[in-house]
Prior knowledge:
This protein is of the alpha/beta class. Helix content is 34%, strand content 22%. The longest helix is centred in the middle third of the chain and has 16 residues, at 292-307.
Amino acid sequence: MKLKTLIESLGVQDAGEMDNPEIINIQSDSRKIENGSLFVAVRGVTTDGHAYIESAIVQGAIAIICEEVPEALKEKAIFIVVKDSADVLGKLMATWYDYPSDKLILVGVTGTNGKTTIATLLYEIFRKMGHKVGLLSTVCNYINDKAVPTNHTTPASITLQRLLAEMVDAGCEYAFMEVSSHAIDQKRISGLSFDGGIFTNLTRDHLDYHKTVENYLKAKKKFFDELPATAFALTNIDDKAGLVMLQNTAAKKQTYSLRTMADFKGKILESHFEGTDLLINGKEVTVHFVGRFNAYNLLAVYGAAIALEKEPEEILVALSTLHSVSGRFETIPSPLGYTAIVDYAHTPDALVNVLNSIREVLGNKGRIITVVGAGGNRDKGKRPIMAQEAARLSDQVILTSDNPRFEEPDDIINDMVAGLSVMDLEHTLCITDRIQAIKTATALAKKGDVILVAGKGHEDYQEIKGVKHPFDDREKLREIFVTQQR
């Protein structure tokens, strides 16, 4: 594509006497530059792309988009100065791939918890209805039935636009994607045209990045503020931030609730570990999901499908056939008569939701044994809170290593222990080795008990000192259960 064609897509109608070479690709990583590349210098969280402009030129970049031109390099390439490189990168990639989001019905899901479940269930339900669909999620990206591994909740702009273009090429009509607060703040979704947005809830998370809950909320709200009038904005009004998301949006406002009047009103009739009997807008449906948090997720899926003009009965039938997303309240029965549940819960609120859901079903018929840790190099403030909630809602707690990353696992556990009272400590064990922690939980469990292994969910690795070691909570439990049968 010619450089001036790309530049004109940014609203620059007159590129003057600027040269107009053929651009072979667009990159924001100088290590991927080839002869004929356009390099976009983006100011990131840990590195500033402007520091790599010279390297990009040496590698073969013939044009540079940046916010500030290095004086010593201004004669060595074509420079285009912009106000916000990150915003421009998304728009450039949209132009490069011929605006793929305009050719799809694109719905974004944002919030602290529930994003993966809602996006994945929408993907599954629309496929059941006979459509070709794309999915961008924490667990895996899909181009209809083709799986594409993922490293981020929301991919970087270059990857994101490419995946959407591949969805268009594959004949997809719909795409459902998780929209993280990082992606909103870092302008990764710039250049996308959304047909709908869903808000789940907002609780403490990612404060290592956003610093305050207010900043975190503003990042989420920005997504809704920028939705067009042709889109829908669906929000959970039982969450105190729910209506905040709708304050300045031009989109059609819709709500869902388990507590009060809403466009999509739900009620839990009965819960058991095999599923839940739900009432949605006066119609009863039995689903293979457990807990109030999943009832909210299903209401969001139902509401979004209605907003996308599907028939209520068709949606309910499809909902009744769906199963939980990998690593989200995933139930694994033990041959000894107790139940293990693996869940991705890695925030205080998510942990409370899962534990409350277990207690609602379990009643006083068994104990809850919780195995939980906290991720390294992330918000340290939530560590003692997670330990407190685990101790408050469990009969036995085992604090262990999660993904320590570049921190010492024992230091993380000590941060968690700091939140516990003397009484809490009486039913808390600290076992750093995660497999030993899980084995201890299974040794303590008796018939009728429930073991919750929280924090990693679908992950099949444990990240230690920059290396991802194979580790899957579900596999470890199944291996233990096999030995119990012998």
